[in-house]
Amino acid sequence: MDKNNLEELGVPNEKTITLDIVKELWSKTYNTEGKPDWSHILPYYDNDIYFRDSVQELRGIEEFTAMAGRLTKRSKDLSMKIVNAVQKDNIVFLEWEMTIKFRKNPSSVLYGTSRLTLSENGKITAQRDYYDLWGDIFDNIPRFGKAYRRFMKKRFG
Question: How many folded domains does the chain comprise?
């Protein structure tokens, strides 16, 4: 089966993904009672997906699926709130707040944005996530979070 054929995967064959579909898919992915479920959104990703965030850069649906699996495995609880979403032509921007709880640590809220590039055949060909991983996590460590923010403000602010 050709993974790029949306109909064979049971995905509506639309020319492009709409903003409403993206918001619905994202909400379903991260708000599944603790553990993310990517099964319904992966068919919308192109086989040659390019992904980059603050931690990693990868190419291909296999690497992307493995990355999603690692995130699910190491997260005790993970949810996402879509704050804003806009689309212009084939680019979608999502502003989000992700609450993540790792195995033995308190919950941390990461504030970020995702930029999705959509193809004409209704696939996500690129995803770039922007967020301050360390700052948002350090904020939840007693005393260290405030010291980190003071340092950042003094050094870079």
Answer: 1
